[in-house]
Design a protein that fits this description.
- By secondary structure, this protein is mainly α.
- Helix content is 67%, strand content 0%.
- The chain is built from eight helices and no strands.
- It has helices at 10-18, 22-32, 37-45, 49-61, 65-77, 81-93, 101-113, 117-128.
- The longest helix is centred in the middle third of the chain and has 13 residues, at 49-61.
Length: 138
Amino acid sequence: MGLFGKKESMDELREQVKSGDSKAKQKLWRRYCDFSQEEIETMANSGDAYAECMLGDKFEGDENYIDAAIWYQKSADKGFDKGQFGLGLLYIQGCGVKKDVRKGIELLKASYAQGNGDAAEQLVMLEEEGLVEAGSWL
């Protein structure tokens, strides 16, 4: 047992996430950051939404937007908010996918609906640019 109590297993955290625990979602995301690239790829190839999103992040960081879009799409299709967020930005910018601001905004709204604060920030900026109707996503 650690200083702050027992460390939850990945499965326990996943169950907490399913029940809507946002703190568990952050803990689980941080756990994934501890895995090697090879482990992330193995998990992503087995359909793990968190790992798929992490691969999307990696490819986006490498400016390989086509592969980023592929992995974000897989994660977003499973309803993962960070995958929806990453894919939404790619659609808005037209990176790796055909530019589709409307589709990008819908993905950001879906991500925000799950509590993604980054999506909220982007939607506010899009409001300021006149691309999103004020308050339509709240």
